[in-house]
Design brief:
Length: about 475
């Protein structure tokens, strides 16, 4: 006898647990199976995001930023702190406590919404049957009308620099260092490389980032990427572009990375290396070959725009399917799929998914970049506003960076908003709402923004698109 549900979700990360809660809210009998085990052997819902990704990284970014500001910026405010001490153990405990609390929160939400949570592995068999194997105990057969796959992703490993959980680590390892490495090498100047590189640089490590591409942050608007690169350089982050790692020698003394760029061969001696060259979908042990779910050549579960797989009533969401590997993208897919299963209409607007890099300055954007529009031959206009002219940014001692608004030259509809500066990740929310409602720059121009706030910079950038900025010279 197998236990029956309307919906079984395999994977309890931000894609899976959100899908499960939404399905239960729609009145569907729902189960969510999650295999995550923390380093202490404790199972926890929340997936990569909560246990080894978004949340722990943001906790350390916050702590390290406070430390850095106390060390470098407080004096400018007239605050002396005497001898500043770093208690990394406390910083790490605080981080772990936040993740524990939030994961416990998901269990609470499951109970409140009557989602049945299972800790262990889910394996999809033909005909929507799922074999559930708990971490300790015998396997059980479950079945459901609908199965949602949300198995997430895992770090890409470089064959010439394999992970060894000590000197050469992935992002999870880099969140858990017990001491600040004196010299840290980071391979990959993407989102993780920049965020975790910033954490350890602020805490005192000499950080060198090796990036294979010649261009810095090619997915961002080029003007914003240039501005961010300049600011990182000023902070002492050593970012080496066009650096192709060839080999790594690991010894008691550390790691010698050999890499090549246009100047020739180089060596970099470091104490630890973080490999952050992307993530790949994780579907190991997830599917019986007869379940009828196609995996494409890049390892992603094949889905249509509504996240339907090639098997009837089997859906897939989050990092294990195409699209940006972002928690909020997976969550929105979870909501959509649960609504579709419940017979409602639903869609995800993939054109307005915000991207945020939580460095200082933060980098955030939504919509199209200027280079994409140029390539497409679109007619567009651009408005920019520098935080240097924002009273609030100056009061915060964070006057570097800018807001850039791009709009259609004729219709005035906003096509992209790009920000490099203080709290860019919060500011981008206004742009996301505006673009979801297909707003024009005039809509933003006519919206009253509180004073003095950072949002005024978004307002002024929208005004500047029509050469109407008040606090900047319109050229
Ligand atoms: P996951 O979060 O990976 O969850 C998948 C879950 O499924 C896991 O618990 C896994 O154990 C489980 N699972 C897999 N197979 C099975 C199985 N067969 N049976 C049962 N369970 C299974 N994104 C952002 O949007 N903002 C950020 O700030 C951000 N910061 C990040 C920082 C770092 C260091 C990293 C590594 C990632 C970050 N991300 C961030 C990306 C984000 O974590 C992922 O996009 C997100 O977690 C994907 O959600 P998911 O539910 O698809 O997969
Ligand atoms: P990424 O794709 O953002 O960056 C990887 C970088 O490594 C790229 O710049 C790439 O050119 C470079 N690279 C690839 N191979 C290389 C090599 N052999 N040598 C040197 N450089 C090489 O990937 P990531 O930083 O690992 O992050 C993984 C995923 O996690 C991303 O999809 C990201 O969206 C997500 N994430 C998001 C956030 C956030 O939203 N704030 C934070 C962390 C991670």
């Amino acid at each position: 006898m197998s236990r029956k549900f309307d919906v079984i979700v395999i994977g309890g990360g931000p894609a899976g647990y959100v899908a499960a809660i939404r399905a239960a809210q729609q009145g569907l009998a729902t189960a969510c199976i999650d295999a995550w085990l923390n380093r202490d052997g404790r199972p926890a819902f929340g997936g990569t995001c909560l246990n080894a990704g978004c949340i722990p990284s943001k906790a350390l970014l916050e702590s390290s930023e406070l430390y850095h500001r106390a060390r470098v910026e407080f004096a400018n405010h007239g605050i002396g702190v005497g001898h500043l001490e770093l208690d990394l153990g406390q910083m790490q405990s605080r981080k772990a406590k936040i993740a524990r609390q939030l994961s416990g929160g998901i269990e609470g939400l499951f109970k409140a919404n009557q989602v049945t949570g299972f800790f262990g592995y889910g394996h999809l068999l033909p005909d929507n049957k799922v074999r559930f194997t708990p971490h300790d105990g015998a396997a059980e057969l479950l079945e459901a009308e609908h199965v949602v796959l949300a198995s997430g992703s895992t770090p890409v490993e470089l064959p010439m620099v394999p992970f060894d959980s000590d000197r050469v680590v992935d992002s999870w390892g880099a969140l858990d260092f017990a001491t600040v490495p004196e010299r840290l090498g980071v391979i990959g100047a993407g989102v993780i490389g920049l965020e975790l590189g910033s954490v350890w640089a602020r805490l005192g490590a000499k950080v060198t980032i090796l990036e294979a591409l010649d261009e810095f942050l090619p997915m961002a608007d080029a003007q914003i990427a240039r501005d961010a690169q300049r600011q990182f350089k000023q902070q002492g982050l050593d970012i080496r572009l066009g650096a192709k790692v060839q080999d790594a020698e690991v010894s008691q003394a550390g790691v010698r990375l050999k890499y090549e760029d246009t100047q020739g061969g180089h060596e970099l001696a470091v104490d630890k290396v973080v490999v952050a060259v992307g993530r790949r979908p994780f579907t190991q042990e997830l599917l019986d070959p007869l379940a009828g779910v196609d995996i494409n050549e890049r390892g992603f579960v094949e889905v249509d725009d509504e996240c339907r797989t090639t098997a009837l009533n089997v859906w897939a969401i989050g990092d294990c399917v195409r699209g940006p590997m972002l928690a909020h993208k997976g969550s929105e897919e979870g909501v959509m799929v649960a609504d579709l299963i419940a017979g409602k209409t639903a869609e995800v607007n993939y054109d307005v998914i915000p991207s945020i890099i939580y460095t200082a300055p933060e980098i955030a954007w939504v919509g199209q970049t200027e280079q994409q529009l140029k390539e497409a031959g679109a007619r567009y206009k651009v408005g920019t506003f520098n935080f240097a002219a924002s009273g609030r940014a100056q009061a915060m001692d964070q006057g570097a960076g800018l807001v850039k608004v791009i709009a259609d030259a004729e219709s005035d509809q906003i096509l992209g908003v790009h920000i490099c500066g203080p709290l860019a990740g919060e500011l981008i929310g206004e742009a996301v709402v505006a673009m979801e409602f297909q707003a024009s720059t005039e809509d933003l121009q006519r919206t009253i923004h509180g004073h003095p706030t950072l949002t005024e910079a978004v307002h002024e950038a929208a005004l500047s698109a029509d050469r109407r900025a008040i606090h900047a010279i319109n050229r």
